[in-house]
Amino acid sequence: MRGSAARRGRFRIKADIRRGNSGGPVLDLNGLVIGVVTAKVNTPKVFQKTGRVMRNIGIAISRPTVLDFLFQHLAFFVRIEHVAQFWNMLDIGPIRAKPRQLR
To answer: What is the pLDDT of residues 21-34, one digit of tens each?
Structure first.
């Protein structure tokens, strides 16, 4: 996105955004969260204004913008690295099912 939308921490994604996708994560190729889905482009409205058909275009809020919002509103969240550290501190180890022996 260019202009004011990009400055406000939003970016365009090529995805089939459907009802209920808002709030879902936008992942990069490594599976890391880079944003949050917020909307989809209104194809009929864009076509009426520009004559261009824009399919499967969504709008997302960037990760830094989301984190800034969470910090400003004192939202509590846990980074996945901290969950893994906590799990290791419990020293439980991996859960393994014991094979069942046939008699």
So the answer is: 889 999 888 888 89
- How far is the C-alpha of 75 from the C-alpha of 83, rounded, in Å? 17
Integer Cα distance of 69 and 74 in angstroms? 9
Residue 9 · residue 61 · CB < 8 Å:
yes
* Mean pLDDT, the chain, whole residue set: 77
Write down the architecture of domain 4-90 according to CATH.
Answer: Beta Barrel (2.40)
Task: Report d(CA 100, CA 103) in Å as an integer.
Answer: 10
State residue 6 phi and psi, 5-degree precision.
-65, -35
Q: How far apart are CA 53 and CA 45, in angstroms?
A: 10
- Domain regions of the chain by residue span: 4-90
pTM: 0.62
